[in-house]
Structures are given as C-alpha cells and as structure tokens.
Amino acid sequence: MILYLLCFLLFLIGLYGVITRRNVIKIVIGLVFMEFSVFLLLVLVGYVEGGEAPILDETIVSGPFVDPLPQAMVLTAIVIGLASNAMLLAIAIRLYKKYGTFDIRKINELKG
Amino acid sequence: MSQLIPLFVIIPLVAAFLIPIIGKFLEGFQKVLTSVAFLSLSVLTVYFICAGTGEPLLYTVGGWEPVRGIPIAIYLVADGLSIFMLAITSVVGFLVSVYSISYLNRFTAQNNFFALLCLMMGGMNGVVLSGDLFNLFVFMEIAVIASYALVAFGIEKQELEASFKYQVLGGIASVLILFGVTMLYWKTKTLNIADAGNILRTSQDKSFVVFTQLFLITGFGLKAALIPFHAWLPDAHSSAPSPISAMLSGVLIKAIGIYAIIRLFFNMFTLSDEMAVTITALGAVSMVLGSFLAMYQWDIKRMLAFSSISQVGYIVTGIGMGMIILARNGDQRVAALAISGGLFHMINHAAFKGLLFLNAGAIEHETHTRNMKSLGGLSRSMPITASTSMGASLAISGVPPFNGFFSKLIIIIAAIQGKFYLLAALAVLISIVTLAYFMKFQKYTFFNRQGARDRKKIKEVPFAMCFSMIVLAVLCLGLSLLIFPGIREVVLDPAVRVIMNASEYAPSITGF
Amino acid sequence: MKGMSVIVKKVAQLLSGLIFMYGVYIITHGHLTPGGGFAGGALLAGSMILLVLAFGSDVMGLKKRETGSSIIENSAILVFILFATIAMLVGTRVFFHNFLPGGTLGELISAGVIPLYNIFVGMEVGAALFTIFLALVIYKEEVLK
Questions:
Q1: Do the chains contact at C144 and A94, CB–CB below 8 Å?
Q2: What distances in angstroms separate CA A17 from CA A36, A89, A92, B180, one per listed residue?
Q3: Distance between C29 CA and the closest CA of chain B, angstroms
Q4: Do B3 and C93 touch (CB under 8 A)?
Q5: Nearest to residue A32, comparing CAs of C14, B399, B175?
C-alpha cells in the first residue's frame, strides 16, 4: 500500500512543479515526474507477491508469475515519453533563443 | 476485405518514412507521395463504405487467435463508426495535402512538414481503428507528437509559445489517459475494449468505475478542447500553418477526443446517468462560451479556433443528449435522432471548418496578415476565396440549404422531442451568435472597402489551393444530401447503429 | 564544439568500443535475455554521443553525421515495416505474423523474425537518439552564439 501512496506522492510533486514553477525547464521536469509516477504505478499493477519472472525455463515449472504485459506497456510508454520530452526540450531551447529568458511570465505573446 | 484494414496504418507510415530519405534527393517527391497516399486512403474508405455489410470487421495483428475466448492479440476493428471517422480523416487529409502543395512554397523544410503530416494521419487512423486501449493511447501519442511539431513549424515567437502550451497541457492529458488505462487494466486484467466491456458490465464496483471515468473524461476532454479544458486550442490552432489548422480543427480533435469519448463511454463502460449529464453539460458550456469568446476576436484564425470549441460543443451536446436518453431508457427513436445529429454535425464541421481555415490560409498567403481590421475589399481581388468562404460561413451558421442547417436542425428537433428545452433554446441562440460573428468576418475581410490598401497587388491563390477550397465548398453543399434516406443509410446509419446498440459491440468481437 | 582533454579523449576512445559492443550484444540477445532493441539502441547512441562529446566537431561535421544518422533511422524503420508487411503476403497472411520457423528454445538463432525486428529497432533507436542529440547540439552551436 505504501508504494501506491508513494506513486501518488510523486505524481503530486510533479503536478506541484508544473503549476508553481516559472522556469520552462522546471515545468518540463515536473511533467516528467508526473509521467514516471504513472509508469511506476503501471509496473506495480503487474507485480505479484512472490512471483517468478515469466520466462520459459526447466527450473521454473509452475507457481505465480509476475504479469509481463504491464512491463511491455511501460517500455512502450517510456519510448513515447522520450519522444515527447525531446520535443518539449527542443521547443524550450528555441523559446530561450527567441525570448532570451526561461521565465514563462515573460513569454506571453498570446492572450485573449 | 478485412485483410485491407492494416493498410490504413501502413500507407501513411511508409509514406512518412520514405519522404525524409527520397525527398532529400528528389525535388517535389514529398508532395506527390503525400497526395497519392492520402488519395489511396480516400479510395479505400469509399470502398469500405460501399461494401459495408453492417458487421464489424476484425483483424488480429500477428495472427494470435483468442485463447479460451479471451482475446490476446491486438485487434483492429472497423465498424460503422470507425469507417465514418476514416472517411472524415482521409478526405480532409487528401484535400489538405493538395492545398499544401502550393501553400508550402514559401517555407523551407518541406520534407519535415509532409513527413509529419503523414505521421499524424497514421496516428489518427490507428486511433480510429484500434480495438485495444493501450494501442489507442500509443497511436494517439503518435498523432499528437506530430501535431506538436507541426504547430511549431513556423518557429517564430508565437508558434513556439503556442506549441509549448499545447505540449504541457497535452502531456498532462496523456498522463491522465495512461492513468485511466492503468486503472482499467488493474481492475479487468485486459486491454481489449470489448473484453473490458464484458467484465465492466458485470462488475459491481461502482465507485471505481466513476473514478476511472472521471480521469478518462478529463484526459480526452483536454484533447477535444471542451471548456474548461480549452486553454491551449485557440493558441495552437491559430499559430499552426493554415493547412495544419484545418487538419487539427477539422479532424484531430474529433479523432482523438470525441471519437475516443464515444467509443469508451458507449461501447466499454455501461451507460450511466451521471456521466451522460456531465458530458452533455461540458458540451453545452463549450457551445455557449466558445461562441461568445469568438465574438471578441479580431484575428481570423483565432476567431475560427474559438468557433471550433463552440461547434465541438454542438457535437458533444447532441451525442450527450442521446446518451442521457439511452441511460434513462427513454425513447429509442429520439436518442437515435440526437446521436445522428451529433455525428452529422461532426462530418459537417470537418468540411466547413477545414474550408474556413484554408480560406484564412489563402488570405494570409496573399496579404500576409490575419487581422480583420487591416483587411478589406478582398471580394474583388480573390473571388474564389471570397465565394467559398461565404458558403462556409453560411454553412457554419446554419443557413439552408447548406449542411450545417440540417445537422443543427436535427439536434434541435431531438432536444425538443427529448424535452431538453433549455438546450434547444441555447442551440438556437448560439446559432444566431455564430451567424453574427461570421457576418463580421465576411464584412471586414471581403466587403469593407475603406480598410483596403494597395489592393492591386493581391491576386487569387494558385490552382492547387483553389482546388481544395472548391471541393470542400461543394462538399459543404453536397453533405446536406445525407438527410435523404438512401444516402443516409449508407454513410450515417451504420455509425449511429454502433452507438445505439452499444452493448452489442462487445459480443460481436469476443463472441459472447 | 571543442573537444576535451587528452585523458578524456583516451578513456572515451577505449570505452566507446566496449559500450558499442555491449549494445550490440543486448540487441542480438533481445529474444533470450532482458533488454532488446530499445535498451541496446540507447547504448549504441550513448557510445556515439560519448565520442562526439570527447572529441568535439565543427558544425559541418555534425551536420554530415546528422544526415547520415537520420537516413539510417528512416531506413531501419522502413525495413521494420517491410518485415511486418511481408508477413501479410506469406504464411497465414496476417500483419506482423511471425513467418520464420521458431527454432529451438534458448538458441541464438531462434524465435523467427523477432531477432530481426530487434536488430532494426536497435538501429532505429540508436540513430534516433543520436539524431536528437546532434540536432540539439547543432542548434546550440549555430544559433545560440
């Protein structure tokens, strides 16, 4: 149970970062925290108490196996997260070039 | 015929990855390949619509057959609703790709543009076809990451800022959706939408279901830009290059926002009264506030973006009313009317909002400004743009005989028959407000002679751009034929049937 | 972008080959051990990035490498889609079907097409990560001066 609560705490830390920080890079970091808290939860969902690795082998005949599907899902989600984070950072660098600052209070051309 | 389903994903993806290689050496390759690929998708869709049997077509990727009735493969499902959405994506995509041939001439990095456009198309087609929760998420991410890059394509101050906002809110939405998928997997131990639907139907744990539904509706609501989740849309849709704005407003928010809401809330979850009321309320609020916000805009594309929020509100209101009636076991006929109104408005909105954004692009292409105050008198120098945008403006504000009139009429009739008098009154009022701000757009852009400066230099846009605009304008008129029974039964009714008989989706895929 | 000191250069030279080989091992044994295309590809990209960081390069050189790696990336994913599409033409005629014989469990050459998929995913991921790195570096070198 404590692990699930820690996941939730990580999610809240990320959300706090996204909402309160003014620096573009810190917002990106907050977003990454949120993403990874959900990945952690996804891995925990597949965990089985005392489960074996789900590999076909002579030594492991029966018994509870951990669920391999969430692990595959997490890997896929990490790859997607990589792409979107690379995209975010590329945009952040270009924002810095155009505005000369990372402060989102000064990046406010679009309003209304 | 079900052998052809994966082609909807394969063709755009292959095109997307061929373009950066061959396009480097061969001038013009990227434009031709994108148009040909999207044209072949449109032809495939037309074939699917004409040969439709009403039964959902299944495709198991990798050939993994179900084990003891439990589906383990990734399923691609092409039922009426999916094919209806594919028709929207591929036809609008084809016209947008033709339009981009001329529009893109003043940009560099054309390879990147067309590759990303193909990637976005592949992602949207995947979302629409996927019968599996996690693949829906993956394809959605492919589509939105491509759209993040496309919004920032101009790499000026405003584009970058809009793209950053869009990415942060889109990232939060993706996290929430992934969380919803995780919770569903935790509870049902399956990712197949049909299988999960079977399990959720017998489950007693109501609080869990409501918890998951709230996360999913927030996530997909952010993608569909329903108010109060709309903050990114006006910036992103107005900063993107115009063909991409047409694609985002006309197709993307429907394919990954509204389609996903419909598919999950009708076909997977059991219909519940609270959720139906929530969705309808979100739709009604978007419908009203979006149009009032649009009235105050002087930037053409920004006004169109706010109007997208309002029109998406119409679609969601129509579908939500059907959902309420079905959840309360009301009159089936009225529910079918409301849902068909919503879906009809969805295809109409793709046509006229796509056309309006293409018009805005044509205006920007010639005059290099989007501010209505500094435009004027364009009706003489750009006759095709002026006439097509007049048609689209009349269609979106619901003037007969254009298509928007009929879909709004159906929604209003359904609202009155279902005794939602307030919604009916709001729909009529917002239709008038829509007419008001589109008249403002017409007056200041095309007719106001005073504001006009050096009109001599402005000419009509090149042929490829005109072609797309004319075809979409013809569609704006032609789609009103969908109210006639013979045509409606082929195009609209299969999609409505999938939503109406929501509980039959799961048995038709898993077999029990 | 300037290179680093002699010590860093020498160590990077020694290590990058080993890292590259380890990445290749992870990719080719993807169907037998934990790891596979993505993890191995990340290692491949890491070894290249190490070299670029240690030795430095001028913008022209970086651009040449970026062109090369983006072409590798795109062709790798095209071959991946090609394999998936070949499966639609042979055997049971299903997208992504494993059309090669399975072989014996635990052998290096077994599991049908899966090792091939792993190899091309590894190429794709390695080249993609390297391209992202180069794009950011080129932007920094060219524009942020």
A1: no
A2: 14, 16, 16, 22
A3: 22
A4: yes
A5: B175
Neighboring chain B residues of A87 at a CB cutoff of 8 Å: 145, 148-149, 167
Mean pLDDT on C116-132: 91
Total length of chain C? 145
Q: Do B21 and C71 touch (CB under 8 A)?
A: yes
Given a cut of 80, whether residue B423 has pLDDT beyond it is yes
Largest interatomic CA distance in chain B: 75
* Three-class HEC string of B183-240: HHHHHHCCCEHHHHHHHHHHCCCHHHHHHHHHHHHHHHHHHHCCCCCCCCHHHHHHHC
Chain C residues contacting A, CB < 8 Å?
38, 105, 125, 129, 132, 135-136, 139-140, 143-144
Q: Are B223 and B251 within 8 A, CB to CB?
A: no
Across residues B152-177, what is the average pLDDT? Answer: 91
Q: Does B171 contact A87 at a Cβ distance shorter than 8 Å?
A: no
- Taking the C-alpha atoms of residue C82 and residue A61, their distance in angstroms, rounded to an integer, is 37
C143/A86 CB distance under 8 A: no
Q: Which of B200, B187, B209, B193 is nearest to B71 (CA)?
A: B193
What pLDDT, on the 0 to 100 scale, is given for residue B393?
Answer: 92
Contacts of B3 in chain C (CB under 8 A): 88, 93
The length of chain A is 112
CA atoms of B132 and C143, how far apart (whole Å): 44
Domain definitions of chain B by residue range: 2-510
The closest of C81, C79, C71, C40 to C134, measured between CA atoms, is: C71
Nearest to B182 by CA among A71, C133, C112: A71
Please give the distance of CA B122 from its chain centroid, rounded to a whole number.
14
Give the SS3 label for residue B59.
Answer: strand
Q: Please give, one letter per residue, the 3-state secondary structure of A67-80.
A: CHHHHHHHHHHHHH
Tokens of A68: 């391999």
Confidence of residue B450 (pLDDT cuts 50, 70, 90): low
CA distance B141 to B178: 11
What is the Cα gyration radius of chain C?
18
The answer to whether the complex's ipTM is over 0.85 is yes
Identify the H or E element spanning B84. Answer: helix B80-103
Reported as a pLDDT band with limits 50, 70 and 90, residue C111 is confident
| Cα-trace Rg, chain A | 20
C-alpha closest to that of B142 among A77, C22, A73: A77
Q: Chain-centre distance of CA B271, in angstroms?
A: 23
The span from the CA of B177 to the CA of B191, in Å, is 13
**Residue B116, strand partner residues:** none
How far, CA to CA in Å, does B181 sit from each of A94, B21, B264, B276?
Answer: 34, 36, 11, 20
In a 3-state reduction of DSSP, which class is residue B408?
helix
Would you call A103 helix, strand, or coil by DSSP?
Answer: strand
Chain A, window 46-65: residues with a beta carbon less than 8 angstroms from a chain B beta carbon = none
Model confidence pLDDT, tens digit, residues A28-60: 999 999 999 999 999 888 888 877 777 766 676
Cβ neighbours of A83 (radius 10 Å) = 17
Phi, psi dihedrals of residue A23, rounded to the nearest 5° = -85, 135
> Which domains occur in chain A, in start order?
7-48+64-99 (1.10.287.3510)
Domain limits, chain C: 6-142
Better-scored residue on pLDDT, B188 or A62: B188
Q: In Å, how far are B319, B329, B333, B337, B495 from B325, measured between CA atoms?
A: 10, 6, 10, 11, 18
| Identity of residue C144 | L
pTM recorded for the entire structure: 0.94
Give yes or no for A73 touching B (CB within 8 A): yes
